[in-house]
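ok, trying the design again with the full structure, not the truncated one.
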């Protein structure tokens, strides 16, 4: 009988943020193909009898081609194995989960998706940043700075919506370019930003800046993302760096902008 593939989200890093279903699926695995960033604590949940393959991708390092990952998933499933494709965050948020799902369907392989907490949710929560807020942020936009083709900038909307929280995955190394893209897309220069590295892990680092100061921000080590929006003012680190946060002032300013 053919096997089955589980495409599983491992969450943003903290092993305690792994879902109960994901942990259960891992314990049933015959083989696990995992991303580079999945923590050792999570990998330790895999039975010792299961085969474990690291097929991760890291910028600037030798990586497993996506076509080879697809082929391995299909081959192991067709010989009757329970296959777990373990991906950081959520498989369907900038995780190529859709590509793998399509390849498995085309090969006639049964597949089940187990969602995970994506990095934006984990990073924002541990920094006490509400990604939406009914007074100042009614829209959430998830972007990536890099496209499928290496070195190319991902396509963004010409104008990002007002009163939005923007989360940029894989922001790259050139924050000057990132700053320019945000300004060209209509984001105000004084909008606060949080650069978060290693979200939810012991090595997490957070730097607070504004879009205007983004080009001078420290280059925190990957994996990292950037949260842009007035909601960043709720972060503990923002309150430590700045004083005078007044929600009513921001709300009034947003109301004036919407009228104008």
């Amino acid at each position: 009988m053919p096997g089955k593939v589980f495409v599983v989200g491992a969450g943003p890093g903290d092993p305690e943020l792994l879902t109960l279903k994901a942990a259960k699926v891992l314990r049933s695995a015959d083989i696990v193909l995992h991303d580079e960033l999945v923590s050792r604590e999570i990998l330790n949940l895999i039975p010792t009898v299961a085969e474990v393959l690291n097929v991760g991708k890291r910028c600037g390092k030798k990586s497993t081609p996506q076509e080879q990952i697809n082929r391995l998933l299909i081959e192991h499933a067709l010989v009757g194995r329970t296959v777990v494709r373990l991906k950081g965050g959520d498989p369907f948020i900038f995780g190529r989960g859709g590509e793998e799902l399509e390849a498995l369907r085309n090969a006639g392989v049964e597949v089940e998706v187990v969602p995970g907490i994506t990095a934006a949710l984990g990073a924002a929560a541990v920094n006490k940043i509400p990604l939406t807020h009914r007074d100042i942020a009614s829209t959430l936009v998830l972007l990536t700075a890099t496209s499928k083709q290496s070195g190319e900038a991902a396509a963004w909307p010409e104008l990002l919506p007002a009163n939005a929280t923007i989360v940029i995955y894989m922001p790259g190394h050139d924050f000057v370019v990132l700053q320019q893209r945000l300004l060209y897309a209509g984001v105000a220069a004084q909008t606060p930003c949080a650069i978060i590295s290693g979200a939810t892990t012991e090595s997490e680092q957070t730097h607070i800046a504004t879009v205007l100061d983004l080009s001078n921000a420290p280059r925190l080590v990957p994996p990292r993302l950037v949260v842009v929006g007035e909601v960043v003012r709720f972060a503990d680190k923002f309150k430590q760096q700045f004083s005078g946060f007044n929600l009513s002032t921001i709300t009034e300013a947003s109301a004036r902008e919407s009228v104008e």
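Keeping the full-length input from now on. The longest strand covers residues 4-9.
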